[in-house]
Specification:
By secondary structure, the chain is an alpha+beta fold. Helices cover 31% and strands 29% of the residues. It is built from nine helices and 14 strands. A seven-stranded mixed beta sheet has the order 3-4-5-9-8-7-6, sandwiched between helices. A five-stranded antiparallel beta sheet has the order 13-12-11-10-14. A two-stranded antiparallel sheet has the order 1-2. A hairpin with a 3-residue loop joins strand 1 and strand 2. Helix 6 packs across helix 8. It is elongated, with a radius of gyration of 21 Å. It starts with a helix and ends in a 5-residue tail after the last strand.
Length: 326
């Protein structure tokens, strides 16, 4: 009920009477009044006037299950939301939910993570009230070799979702980061449960620096936030909803072909290193080349000095710009 009340308040600029709300939701006016009090305590600025009703004056940057559900629009991605004030890692939470049979599209969101995960076992700093820390559960009926492509389509979905919401255009650093002004703004971590022939489930962890005002000295030269770049504090729930909408769109395209041909061109347009020299750090040694985009399987195309094209798989390979992070 709370999510529906939030949704109705957001959709109406005029006042909604307690009587109208109680009739719509088939509850008492007292129940409506109690929910309004709860919402005010959570940070929503709600105006209540006798004989007129309730009006949402300002929606604070609130993350709750009800707030997130109120933003979703009858979609699979984010259709089921689990919110945690504090957790070890949303990826770990999503894997727990997966093992208990949670449906595809279940989204785990946290306000604070005590053990956020980064790529290759690195930790991810996730302070309370500043970012989006979430993990999405997928159950694609595909071979395990297809899983790396899900990381790439997620990067595009996040980039497009951010732009849809706040008109800020980020770029993609293949395979799992987003950048803004040459600094990291988002990281993506994909984990999988599978047997030899079939994926059981995939969990995609997404960490976005949204309203972070400053970073520790050791990472301030390579990390930034949407707030630092735009000077605006943004409401995270609406951004999450936009990302989930894009995620659903691109995931459907991916399932139709089992490759990235449906989004390849759009992805390459946002590829930060395209047509620039990159350094590939591979287990057998590093080498330089010019990034030429990706193929339909998500491998990075790097043109070598002799004109041949190297197809770089993600896995344990890293790609760096010659003069810094990008």
């Amino acid at each position: 009920m709370k999510a529906e009340i939030i949704r109705l308040l957001k959709e109406h600029n005029a006042y909604l009477s307690g009587q109208e709300l109680s009739e719509r939701l088939h509850v008492s006016r007292t129940a409506i009044w109690k929910v309004m009090k709860q919402l005010q305590e959570e940070g929503y600025e709600i105006e209540a006037i006798r004989n007129k009703g309730y009006r949402l004056v300002e929606s604070a940057d609130v993350l709750t299950e009800a707030e997130l559900e109120s933003c979703m629009r009858n979609q699979m991605m984010g259709g089921h939301v689990k919110f945690f004030e504090t957790t070890d890692s949303t990826n770990t939470e999503a894997k727990r939910l997966a093992e208990k049979g949670a449906v595809e599209g279940t989204l785990a969101v946290a306000e604070y993570q005590t053990a956020g995960k980064g790529r290759r076992g690195k930790s991810w700093t996730s302070p309370s009230g500043s970012g989006i820390w979430m993990s999405l559960l997928l159950r694609p009926k595909l071979e395990p070799s297809c899983a790396p492509m899900i990381t790439l389509l997620t990067g595009l979905a996040v980039s497009m979702g951010i732009e849809d919401y706040c008109k800020i255009q980020t770029q993609i650093k293949w395979p799992n980061d987003l950048t803004l002004s040459g600094k990291k703004i988002c990281g993506i971590l994909t984990e999988m449960s599978a047997d030899v022939e079939l994926i059981h489930y995939v969990v995609i962890g997404i960490g976005i620096n949204v309203n972070t005002p400053k970073f520790p000295e050791e990472i301030e030269k390579i990390a930034t936030s949407l707030y630092l770049e735009s000077g605006r504090r943004l409401k995270r729930s609406g951004m999450i909803a936009c990302i989930m909408k894009r995620m659903e769109e691109y995931y459907k395209l991916f399932l139709e072909t089992s490759d990235l041909s449906g989004i390849q061109k759009l992805y390459e347009e946002r590829l930060v290193n395209r047509d620039r020299e990159v350094l590939v750090l591979a287990p057998k040694g590093e080498y330089k080349g010019i990034c030429r985009g990706i193929d339909k399987d998500g491998e990075l195309l790097v043109e070598l000095e002799d004109g041949t094209i190297s197809h770089v798989m993600s896995g344990e390979v890293s790609v760096r710009g010659i003069y810094g992070y990008v």
